[in-house]
């Protein structure tokens, strides 16, 4: 499974669905074709039989990110624009009087997911993510 890579692809703003549990390879292949989605897999045979797929060779997450970068155009402005859990584009967050956000983040540029309601902001955690992506050569 490539769930961790999927999370990083969302961090980079790539529209990424995880395979539904229990869906067999054949059905997954059909799903990807019908929805014009690129299949990302570690399965050599499955990848070879799929018209639009990316075969991931490495096990290290940084190496995997580099494999994605070689195949999918990645734009810096798309980073941190998508919910890492739900895969939906984020919207700007409207402050409410009763929101329970930590005091040091309320002044930051906040975004929220229209599905799960999580609130996202840039800080040391996103700096660390961007540092990793930079080290992977995803952007300069
Ligand atoms: Zn969400």
Write structural notes for this entry.
With 140 residues, the chain is of the alpha+beta class. The protein has a domain at 1-75. Helix content is 34%, strand content 10%. It contains five helices and five strands. It has a three-stranded antiparallel sheet with strand order 3-4-5, with no helix packed on it. A two-stranded parallel ribbon has the order 1-2. α1 packs across α4. The longest helix has 12 residues, at 124-135. The chain starts with a helix and ends in a 5-residue tail after the last helix.
Summarize the structure.
By secondary structure, this protein is of the alpha+beta class. Helices cover 34% and strands 10% of the residues. The strands form 2 sheets. A 3-stranded antiparallel sheet has the order 3-4-5, with no helix packed on it. Strands 1-2 form a two-stranded parallel ribbon.
Q: List SSEs in N-to-C order.
A: HHEHEHEEEH
Q: Helical element count? A: 5
Low-confidence stretches: none
Characterize the biggest β-sheet: 3 strands, antiparallel
Ligand types: zinc ion
**Rg, alpha carbons:** 17 Å
Decide which structural class fits the backbone: alpha+beta
Q: Which strand order does the major sheet show?
A: 3-4-5
- Shape by Cα distribution: globular
Kindly report the average pLDDT value.
93
Strand content: 5-15%
Total strand segments: 5
Helix content: 25-40%
Note the gap between the termini: 29 Å
Topology, element by element:
Blueprint: H1 3-11, H2 25-34, E1 39-41, H3 44-48, E2 53-55, H4 61-71, E3 91-92, E4 110-112, E5 119-121, H5 124-135
Parallel strand pairs: 1-2
Antiparallel strand pairs: 3-4, 4-5
This protein binds zinc ion.
């Amino acid at each position: 499974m490539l769930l961790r890579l999927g999370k990083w692809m969302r961090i980079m703003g790539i529209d990424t669905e995880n395979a539904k549990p229990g869906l067999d390879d054949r059905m997954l292949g059909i799903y990807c074709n019908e929805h014009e989605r690129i299949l990302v897999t570690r399965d050599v045979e499955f990848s070879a039989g799929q018209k639009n797929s990316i075969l991931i060779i490495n096990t290290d997450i940084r190496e995997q990110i580099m494999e994605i970068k070689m195949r999918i155009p990645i734009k810096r402005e798309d980073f941190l624009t998508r919910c890492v859990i739900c895969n939906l584009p984020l919207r700007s967050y409207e402050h409410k009087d009763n929101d329970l956000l930590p005091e040091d983040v309320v002044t930051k540029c906040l975004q929220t997911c229209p599905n799960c309601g999580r609130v996202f902001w840039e800080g040391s955690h996103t700096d660390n993510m961007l540092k990793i992506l930079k080290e992977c050569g995803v952007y300069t």
